[in-house]
Amino acid sequence: xxxxxxxxxxxxxxxxxxxxxxxxxxxxxxxxxxxxxxxxxxxxxxxxxxxxxxxxxxxxxxxxxxxxxxxxxxxxxxxxxxxxxxxxxxxxxxxxxxxxxxxxxxxxxxxxxxxxxxxxxxxxxxxxxxxxxxxxxxxxxxxxxxxxxxxxxxxxx
Length: 157
Prior knowledge:
Number of strands: 6
Distance between the termini: 29 Å
Shape: globular
């Protein structure tokens, strides 16, 4: 079985050949302006523009949905709605929604297989969304690695 590859570097600048999908987690309230999305927006305008239009349209803008945005000939950015709002609620539950992330990654796996693409990401859901990496890792293994999709996780230097 394949495994997750850990690299030091910038997930918005994947160093490999062939088709690549850069994935990240979005919230379900249309907010874009903190965290990894800033690095995406600095590099490409389209993912933010498409996300905001998707939010405005309200069409399938729900937890567990994904939006694929082609930004270069061989690079796509996948906006995944896996976060409920943006702050930890009064019961101490962080914004991350693991079951939504799993649904997103199941859909993403089909796209990656169709495009014969690798998946590149920061440690999704573990920054502002408040998720735990050991839980995320299991979801990634269950949805992507098990489908023999190469996965690269970047720790920014």
